[in-house]
Every structure is written in structure tokens, then in C-alpha cells.
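Entry 14. Two folds queued back to back today. First construct below, sequence then C-alpha cells.
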Amino acid sequence: MRVLVTGGAGFIGSHVVDLLAASGHDVAVLDRAPPRPGSGARWIEGDVRDAQAWSEALEGVDAVSHQAARVGLGVDFGDVTAYVDDNDAGTAAGLQVLHGRGFPGRVVLAGSMVVYGEGRYRCPRHGAVRAGPRAAARLDAGRFEPPCPACGADLVPEAVDEDAAVDPRNVYAATKLHQEHLLAAYVREHTGASALSLRYHNVYGPRMPVGTPYAGVAAIFRSALLSGRPPQVFEDGGQTRDFVHVADVARANLAALAAPVEGFAAFNVCSGKPRTVGELATLMWKAMDAGAGCEPEVTGRWRAGDVRHVFASPERAAGGLGFRAEVDLEDGIPSLLDG
């Protein structure tokens, strides 16, 4: 099968390219970056916002793995046009070309768990409830758990599944949800076409970006430790996430390209094992042998738009894709030293 991977020079995309090539597939890459040595792929150096670049890259392609995106939460709302250009307009440009060709194949999107906003919660008194945004005064007082909207009690987090209501709370999240909507609209209007959004949770592993404010928390912690500085842990470090190794994410993409799924569907790509941000910082400090003076610092600071708990159920991906993550966090963290 010939597969086009957009963003194939990036962190996750490069691992998808490597696994596809190792599995015997013919791989084409569309990326703004120059060719990556040894990738074994046909390389088209271009921008996903450019329909002509898509047209060249899609020649003879059977399926698309759309990994190209501007990622992270941005610096401030001034990033809005850059996110919409790269994520929304870039996806639309590709779909326009696919439409012109009557493409009936599979598109796999690098989705994100950020579309959920806060995760799933239960109040001991009122049962399942939806958490609203956390008030600044509450956060300033060090009360980080979201309250029950009915009684004000701290809520208990639970695993979120793909049927949960979406609640994008920043520009990046809004663009990731809009990408899903565009793909769903495409498959509704094109017989035989299908699209899967893989809602990545917190991905870590080799080739993570460094030295950028758009990087994820694991990359930010690694940059600090490599620079001889302690990782800065926001809030009280008790916020929970699902950390999934990039090798597992690449496996999920390979499975998604061939899964017997019709129409549009979304799948969590996660470990199914929630961990706290504080735990992550401590595990990284120990694994990287950073030594005294680099112990994680719990700052109590908070950021508007951050969520307290979001971790996922892996069951739909297990049933629909035949995918379960294999790399435990303790086993995966040493791979961060690979660059």
C-alpha cells in the first residue's frame, strides 16, 4: 500500500514513516522540512496549506496519514491565525484535492485528547457531572480540583471515552476538533471513503521537540533537566494525564490504516494508565540522573486553559483497531535520552 504521511519529518510523523517502511509499505512524505536521511520515503518538500503540494504528494496514494499540525497550546491568543492556517486550512486544502480526485480511501488524522477539555468526573453526592472552568480565585487559593456545579464538593476523576461531550478550551483544541468535523463531512459525501481520528494523549519518546514553548510537558521537563535546571511542576503536581510512548502511537497509526471501520470514527490512543504530572517529573529526574539541585519544583502556579484531569479509556481502540499500548512509563522514559 502507498501511504502519504503529512508531517513525516516531525516527532510522531517520523516514527509513523519508519514503521510503515519497516512493514513493507511504499511511503510518501509531505513536509515543509527537507528530506530526513534514511527515511526510505518519497519526499515532497511543501506546505499542507498548498493544494499543489498535496496534488503532487497524493500521486498513486492509497491512504493518508495526516500528522502535520501546529501543536501545543501556543503562547497566547495571538497565535490564533497560525493555528487555524496550519491545522484547519491545511486539512481543508488536502480534502479539496482528495475531493477533486474522488478519493475513496482511508484518512487517518493525528487527533488529540484536548478536544475533551476537562475529563470525566463524578460527584460523591450527585453522580456523573460535567466540570466547568475552574475559577481564578479558587486556583489562587490552591484549590485545584474542579468543584461539583451542584454542591461545590471536589469531583473524582474517571476515564473518559470517545462518546464524552467535547469541550475545546483553547485555540489548538478548537482546531483539532474542526479537523475532525472536516473529515466527517468529507466521508459523508464520498462513497467508500473513511476517516479515523486518533485522539493522542500525552505522547513522549525519542525525537521530541526541544527548546520550544509549543512542546508537551515531557519535552519541557527534559529540556530543563538537560540544561541543569529543575523541572517546574505547575499546580500541586497532582493533575493526571495519560502518557503514551511514540512507538505505541506509531503502532496505532498502522492499525488504523487497515482497521475495518466505516465512515468516520474517533479512537483514544492512550496507555490506559493515568499518572500525575508530579510523578512524571520525578521519574524523569531519576532516569536522567540529573542529581541534586535539579529535583522537580512544585510551584503552585497555574495557567488559564489548563485542565486538571484527563485520562482515557483504551477499550474502543482495543476493540475497533486491535490496539493496546505496550510501553509502560517507567520503561519508556529512558528512551528520552535518545534525543
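Second construct, same run, same settings:
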Amino acid sequence: MKVLLTGSAGFIGSAIGAALEAEGYDVVRVDLMLATAHGDARPPAGTHHLDVRDAAHDRAWSGVLDGVGLVCHQAAVVGAGTSVADLPLYAGHNDLGTAALLAAMTEHGIRRLVLASSMVVYGEGRYRCAAHGDRTPPIRSVEALQSGDFAVYCDLCGESLSWGLVDETARLDPRSSYAASKVAQEHYAAAWARQADATAIALRYHNVYGPGMPADTPYSGVAAIFRSSLERGEPPQVFEDGGQVRDFVHVDDVARANLAALQATAEAEGGRLATYNVASGVPVTIGRVAELVAAGAGRAVQPAVTGRFRLGDVRHVVASPARAEHDLGFRARIGPEVGLPAFATAPLRPAAGHQVV
């Protein structure tokens, strides 16, 4: 089976490509090699240097799509964004790029899609009040954050809320330009599935880490940023009080989830989008992440809990992996207590701006 893999030279795309080839798929690789992710690197051998935004009208795409039966769409601008000026960047590459690719797929009779989505579509996670049950907390105020109060509170009684596991039926509440673009990608995929009587699966990745992750950039994951601090001889800088709870999932597990999703598209109901959390199933605080990376690096450095914060950051978001296990047969194999210390010495790709040949 021939599979088109967009974003194939990226951190996650590279791992997926290797897993697909190991399973005998004929992988057609496409990557634009955006400087924010790849610096001055050249496309790897066998990679089509194409822009998904051109998929619906560039003749080069016709040859690439011929004979393809499945599409695994990983290409995207990632990260929370560094300013409001990033909005057109995300809307162009992520939203327009996905829409153009879907149009081209339909023209070529391709009706099976796996889309890389993200846990950021949820915004804040699930919360429960001891007195009032499940509640949707208001956005944390700047004044509270500045005072060092990072908790979330019940909108009815004002008591602190406890976190719970978020499943795929949760509301979508994007808090950043990246998050808004991921919600839009899912909506385009859902509309395409209905209109084309096609099958689409969106995988909502939680915090992905592992070998080949980009080094410290404004778009890197927090585990890579912690590691970069340690390599400079500095303690990892932990925002808020370090008590934010997340799920960190290893890139090898993410690749396995994509394999399971691609296989599932052959049997999934047409005309709809199915969504799945891709997570380790092991909640961990950001403070603990810093400790695990430091321990793996063998550095006797305590993380620095700074009390700093970023507007738009959520307090807790932790996934329920139950639907992915039930429907796709996917369960993560690498937990954070093993994977994060190993990540401290795993090979990374150079920071953007460095030449790679």
C-alpha cells in the first residue's frame, strides 16, 4: 500500500516514516523544510520538497499523489506561537494547507486520512468541584497569576477544583493560534469526510518527546527546553509552581499510534471523523518532568521554580487513553519515568539555523 506522509522530515514524521517502512508500506515523503523547524537543512534523500498549500493546483503534486491509497498528514507549524503576528503563519500552513491537501486527495480518489491533531484543542482539561461536580473554570486572571495563585476555581462556590482525565467528547476551547489552527484542521477533515464519503482519523497528540526532537527553539517542547538548560549548566526554568499536570508520550509510541490508525481506516465508518487521544496514560507534573530530565543527564541541579507564566497556558490537561485502546488497540509502551531520563542523552536535531547535510 502506498502512503503519502506529509511533514516526513520532521521530528514526528521521521519516526512515523521509519515505522511505516518497517511494516512494508511504500512511503511517499513530502516536506517543505520550514526554517523554523529545519533551519538550513536540505530535504533528506527521497523527499519531495513541496508545499501542501499548493497541493490543489501544483502539477508536481499530481505525480506525487498518483497511486496513493492513504494519507498521513503531519505537516504543520507547531508550538504555541511567539506573538499575535504568528496568526497568519498558522492559518496559512495548517488550515489552508490541510484544505488544499483534502481537495487534491478527492480529485485523486484518495479517501483515507490520518491527521495529526493535538491536545491543545481542549484548552483547559477536565475539572471537578467537590460540591458541584464537573465544572468549566473561567480563564485565570492576570492578577491571580501575577500574585502567584495558579489554581483554578469553581465558578459557583469559588473552591479549588481537582483535575480529571479528558476524553474525546470534551469541549474544544483553543487558547493559542496553534490550537485554533488544529481545531480548524479537524473541522476541515470532518467536512471532507462527510462530503467525500471518506474516512478520517485525527490523533490528538499530547506532549511528544524523544530522539530527534528539535533543540531549544521558541517552538520546542518543554522537555527539550529543560534539556538545553542543563547542557548550558543552568537549572531548568519551571513556570508557575511546577504543579501543572500533563501527559508526556514518547515519539515511538506516537508512530505506533499512527500505524494503528492507518490500519483502522480500512474498517472505520465512512463519512465521519473519529478522534483519539494519543497519550502515555501516566500523568506527570511539569516540575517532575524537569527532575526526570535532570536525573537522566546526571546533573546535580535542582529545577528553578520561577513563578513566571505565559498568558494562554492552561493549568492541567491530562488525557484518557481509553478510546484509542478500545478502538485502535493502541496502548503506549514507554512511560515518563523511563522515557524522560533516557531523553536527557538521546540525539537531538540541531536548533533551527544550523546547517545539516
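Quick look at the second one. DSSP finds eleven helices and 16 strands in the chain. The longest strand covers residues 112-118.
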